[in-house]
Design goal:
- By secondary structure, the chain is an all-beta fold.
- 0% of the residues lie in helices and 60% in strands.
- It contains no helices and 11 strands.
- It has strands at residues 2-7, 10-12, 18-26, 28-39, 46-51, 57-59, 67-72, 77-82, 91-101, 106-110, 114-118.
- Strands 2, 4, 5, 6, 9, 10 and 11 form a 7-stranded mixed sheet that branches. Strands 1-3-8-7 form a 4-stranded antiparallel sheet, with no helix packed on it.
- β4 and β5 form a beta hairpin.
- The protein is elongated.
- The protein starts with a strand and ends with a strand.
- The model has no long low-confidence stretch (mean pLDDT 96).
Length: 120
C-alpha cells in the first residue's frame, strides 16, 4: 500500500507565497511522474504542474512563471513553490504520483488534498 501525505496549505494574501509538500510512503519500488492538481469550488480538477522522473516539467498556462515544481527522490517528496499568488489560485491542491510498487505493479495514487486560500 502506498500513501501520499500533503502539507503546506493555508491562508495567504494576494502576492504572497506558499510551499506545498507531498511525501510518499509505503511499498514503493520507484516513483515515476509526480504532479500537482487543483480543484476550485464548483470547478473540475485541473493540472497545475507535473514533473517527470528525469526532472522535466510542464505547467498550466495559468501558473507558468509563478509556480515551480520540484522533487527530492531521496525523500520521495514533491514540492510546489507558489509565488505571486492570486485569489483565483484558491483551491484544494492534490498531489498525484505514478508509482511502481515493490510487487512491480504500477499505480496512480492521490493525496488527501490541502486547501490554499488567497484572500486579503
Amino acid at each position: 500500500q502506498v500513501q501520499l501525505v500533503e502539507s503546506g496549505g493555508g491562508l495567504v494574501q494576494p502576492g504572497g507565497s506558499l510551499r506545498l509538500s507531498c511525501a510518499a510512503s509505503g511499498s514503493i519500488f520507484s516513483i515515476n511522474t509526480l504532479g500537482w492538481y487543483r480543484q476550485a469550488p464548483g470547478q473540475e480538477r485541473e493540472l497545475a504542474a507535473i514533473i517527470t522522473t528525469g526532472g522535466g516539467t510542464n505547467y498550466a498556462d495559468s501558473v507558468k512563471g509563478r509556480f515551480t515544481i520540484s522533487r527530492d527522490n531521496a525523500k520521495n517528496t514533491v514540492y510546489l513553490q507558489m509565488n505571486s499568488l492570486k485569489p483565483e489560485d484558491t483551491a484544494v491542491y492534490y498531489c498525484n504520483a505514478q508509482i511502481t510498487t515493490v510487487a512491480r505493479s504500477i499505480v496512480a495514487v492521490w493525496g488527501q488534498g490541502t486547501l490554499v486560500t488567497v484572500s486579503s
